[in-house]
From TrEMBL:
Coiled coil: none annotated. PANTHER family: AMINO ACID BINDING PROTEIN, LEU/ILE/VAL-BINDING ABC TRANSPORTER SUBUNIT. Belongs to the leucine-binding protein family. Pfam families: Peripla_BP_6 (PF13458). The keyword Signal applies. It comes from the Bacteria. This is Branched-chain amino acid ABC transporter substrate-binding protein. Residues 1-22 form the signal peptide. It comes from Leeia speluncae.
Length: 376
């Protein structure tokens, strides 16, 4: 029989005690395009997730009696649908308990089936295509208004505020861009407007001259665009180069500081964009968040990092409420959550859309975006 010294016994007891009270590591996923033409938006979203994780870990949250350390597993889908399914499977295999992402509708929708099959909740902070939450999955949620609301707001603004009657619509043929353009067209027609031109490019189009030449010949009162800033910037610049002073109204994919840079001297007060959310001064904790974000990352918020923050915080709050990190256990709590967030109250409809989603119309002014209307 072996004999143990008092010191050896003390060390053994300390080790056992340390193990029993060690932090439980819980992996949560985040996916956004961190490479490619809209990487600036993807990195903005990722930063929102990082800040939420850091805030949660600073609180030393206890779940089932043990302190939980949340670990962010971040993936880059490059804004590509095929890559999105690859990284979604990668996150499933990594045993993440939930995912915030993806940024685009075209990536969020195909990835959502993999998360649903694995029983893992997915909250997008920025994908707006209505189809995302119409698939019947119990795992899909979004914290922004959808394109029925956003497209309706764009069409209504063009017709009522800008007094447009003859409307041209352009999109980038992605699930997001085309879906948004379809909703714009439906709203314009419902209000008695005439769509005189419906054109499209791709999510990589930067030469719009032939499309714009065709549109110019139709003499529209307003041009509406569904797509991201990487393509909207060149579109606007080339509109002005052709002498088209027509107002441009773009969706949230173009409502960013990068859009202003890409449009160059083409951007003016006749440029508008929408965001599927409320402006900073209408966010309950917007001022504080924007200041903390700038201090932490040394950059300004692009668009959706506050919503990414709220999405990640909602995931963690649902785990706390369920006292479990098992998705099967905390998923019902997420579905019924009512939580004060940076952007407003986070609460979902039965199909996973945000309750009471708002859309804000912005106008270019003083080298920035000024909110001019909020549409509920």
């Amino acid at each position: 029989m072996k004999h143990f010294t008092k010191n050896a016994i003390a060390i053994a007891l300390f080790a056992t005690s340390s193990l029993s009270f060690a932090d439980v590591v819980v992996k949560v996923g985040q996916v956004s395009p961190m490479s490619g033409p809209i990487a600036h938006l993807g990195k903005d979203n990722e930063a929102g997730a990082i800040l939420a994780i850091e805030d949660a870990n600073a609180k030393k949250i206890k779940i089932a009696g043990q302190v939980v350390k949340f670990e962010l597993v971040s993936e880059d889908d490059a804004g590509d649908p095929k890559t999105a399914t690859v990284v979604a499977q990668k996150l499933v295999d990594a045993k993440v308990v939930g995912v915030v992402g993806h940024l685009n509708s075209g990536t969020s929708i195909p990835a959502s089936r993999l998360y649903s099959d694995a029983g893992i909740p997915q909250i997008t902070p920025s994908a707006t295509n209505p189809k995302y939450t119409q698939q019947g999955f119990k795992t899909t949620f979004r914290v922004v208004a959808n394109d029925v609301q956003q497209g309706g707001a764009m069409g209504q603004f063009a017709m009522k505020n800008l007094k447009g009657k003859n409307i041209a619509i352009v999109d980038d043929r992605t699930a997001y861009g085309q879906g948004l353009a379809d909703q714009v067209e439906a709203r314009v027609k419902a209000l008695g407007g005439k769509v005189v031109s419906r054109e499209y490019g791709t999510d990589k189009t930067t030469d719009w001259m032939s499309v714009l030449t065709s549109i110019k010949s139709r003499a529209p009162d307003v041009v509406l665009y569904g797509g991201m800033d990487a393509t909207a910037g060149p579109l606007l610049q080339q509109m002005r180069r052709l002498g088209m002073k027509t107002p441009l109204v773009a969706g949230d994919g173009a409502c960013s500081p990068e859009m202003i840079k890409l449009a160059g001297n083409g951007i003016d007060a006749n440029t508008y964009c929408t965001i599927a959310g409320v402006p900073r001064d209408k966010m309950p904790k917007g001022k504080e968040f924007y200041a903390r974000f700038k201090k932490r990352f040394g950059m300004d918020v692009q668009t959706y990092s506050p919503y990414e923050y709220d999405a990640m915080t909602a995931l963690i709050t649902a785990m706390q409420q369920a006292n479990s990190t098992d998705p099967k256990v905390f998923l019902p709590k997420l579905a019924s959550i009512k939580m004060p967030g940076v952007t407003g109250v986070i609460q979902f409809t039965p199909n996973g859309d945000i309750s009471n989603g708002s859309v804000t119309v912005h106008q270019f002014e003083n080298n920035g975006w000024k909110p001019v209307a909020v549409v509920k």
